[in-house]
Amino acid sequence: MAVHIPYIDKPNPVTGVTNAKLGIWLFLASEVMLFGALFSALITLRLGVNDWPHGYEVLNVPLATLNTVVLIFSSVTVVMAWAALKMNNLKQFKTYMSLTLLMSVIFLIVKAIEYGSKFSHGISPATSNFYAIYFVITGLHGLHIIGGIIVNAYLLGPGSKMWSVEPERFTGRIECAGLYWHFVDLVWIFLFPILYLL
Amino acid sequence: MASEHMTLEEVKKHTRTYWVIFGALLVLTAITVAISYVHLPFFWAVVLALVVASTKASLVALYFMHLISEKTAIYLTLGLTAVLFVFLIVIPWMIPWAEVRGWFVS
């Protein structure tokens, strides 16, 4: 017997938002604490030593700047994909979601080039505390990018069939996927200066 | 206006705002990179980097994530998260304070 989940496409009268939206915000709250704990670890390590390298001396700032622009652009395209659905334009949604996926893949390729360069020089998480926290935080962020790619690719492909039968629910799904993607962008907005520019 | 209740006209207006915010984010990214080339004293470099990053994050959260007009339930969730996040970030600075008081001696 199918179980009916209430308020997935209409706002819950108690909260004023759909249960899906409240759910994704609660998930993002837990993500804030996850990355917050790693930022706290970074500060603890940084305060505990005198010889901490400057990010701009040991990491590739131009590549990271490129990735910042790529991720910011993907944030615009994912919110435009949601706006396209609000304007009943599925074709435009697909264009913007494809662009978001393209930007996500470019981000990962650039990151792979960065990692490859470090590994080829014998640099790994075991090299120093700086590289340990650098690889852990950027690696976890990269895993979040991969997670976003999987979800967004599903919503662009087979998941988009929902549009023809439950357009409001599908638009809600895109909004939730977009909120997650913006969070991934937010994390990078802080990672970029803290790791690369200081 | 929460995103669920936007009219077609409001969404169209918002799409123009998204591109303006994109431009602002690019300018702020250029500023934060430019600041890093000046090699300011560490304290001021950190302060400026965090101010620019926080401004960028606020623009993303307010406009792309629609927090500029969200429901109270979301604000309450994020308010509690913010308090706990600040606590996490304060912990490292409490370590020397706790060491002085011998809290880490078994």
Low-confidence spans of chain B:
none
The SSE order of chain A reads HHHHHHH
Largest interface: A-B, 50 and 51 residues
Number of helices of chain B: 3
Please describe the biggest sheet of chain A, giving its number of strands, its sense, and whether it closes into a barrel. none
Query: First CA to last CA of chain B: what distance?
Result: 56 Å
- Please give the domain count of chain A: 1
Task: Kindly summarize this structure in a few lines.
Chain A is mostly helical.
Overview of the structural elements:
The complex is a heterodimer of chains A (198) and B (106). Chain A is mainly alpha-helical and 198 residues long. Chain A has one domain: Up-down Bundle (Four Helix Bundle (Hemerythrin (Met), subunit A)). Chain A is 78% helix and 0% strand. Chain A has 7 helices and no strands. Chain A is elongated and about 60 Å long. The termini of chain A are far apart. With 106 residues, chain B is mainly alpha-helical. Chain B folds into 2 domains: 1-70; 71-106. Chain B has helices at 8-38, 42-64, 72-100. In chain B, α1 packs antiparallel against α2. The longest helix of chain B is centred in the N-terminal third of the chain and has 31 residues, at 8-38. The model of chain B has no long low-confidence stretch (mean pLDDT 89). Classes of the chains: A mainly alpha (198), B mainly alpha (106).
